[in-house]
């Protein structure tokens, strides 16, 4: 009975993390829509995380106000999640795409499962099994193919910034796993985004954001778009991912989340009529194979 319960918990955790990757993969739709209004990439990040912080706070206060409170000794942990992970990753990634080809920036971002696996072995003593390594290689190879192989325009500075986005992205799994030992997923996501939102206000020129809202042809339409962006690309996926971390190892979660570039590619094909190349199709197949390998591995280990 316990074995079946653990198996169902792992399966639901896996589904939640894949769901998060799917929602993250739709981000391009909203970024392109908001860019039409003249918002910079950093300003879009600010709108996204500030509104998500407000949404998470509202959810916690309605669901269980007691979950809103954290211990002062854990402030460094949530500062790390909000500033060191969510905001740092976003700033590095959007900086990277401004100084190098998008495909190169994406490949460097999706080194995150490598950093997660290494940090998981170091901090959580997770086993680095052959299956995990194989799945990791397949997932990363798939991300490279989906993003497009391009090394043009890559400098030492760009390389460090791009790798920084991967480290920041991966750090959420590590710090989030630690935070979940003491707090609910709702508390973790709320305080993560409160700090990320506060930090983003210092780098996004809020006065300019206000002017763009004032100049918008349809203020109601823009507000609705911003709310939808926060809900689809931050609130739902981050909550789903954090809930999934309850029952899925951080290293496995990092690999499962690589469905994001696959979904982003499919969004490009079906929403923006972008061509699906043979290499992109092969990359999608490799990512799906990695996910299957991880779940077959989980099933076998549970059977003993």
Give the overall pLDDT as a whole number: 89
H-E order:
HHHHHHHHHHHHHH
Q: Please bin the fraction of helical residues.
A: over 70%
| SS elements, strand count | 0
Main sheet record: none
Instruction: Give start-end ranges of low-pLDDT stretches.
Output: none
Principal-axes shape call: globular
Structural classification: mainly alpha
- Return the domain count: 1
Rg over CA atoms? 19 Å
List the helices and strands and how they pair.
Blueprint: H1 2-25, H2 27-35, H3 41-63, H4 75-99, H5 102-109, H6 112-123, H7 130-147, H8 156-180, H9 185-200, H10 206-215, H11 219-244, H12 250-256, H13 259-270, H14 278-303
Helix pairs in contact: 1-11, 1-13, 1-14, 2-11, 3-4, 3-9, 3-11, 4-5, 4-8, 4-9, 5-7, 5-8, 6-8, 6-12, 7-12, 7-14, 8-12, 9-11
How does this model look, in words?
With 304 residues, this protein is mostly helical. The protein has one domain. Helices cover 79% and strands 0% of the residues. The protein has helices at 2-25, 27-35, 41-63, 75-99, 102-109, 112-123, 130-147, 156-180, 185-200, 206-215, 219-244, 250-256, 259-270, 278-303. The longest helix is centred in the C-terminal third of the chain and has 26 residues, at 219-244. It is globular, with a radius of gyration of 19 Å. The chain starts with a helix and ends with a helix.
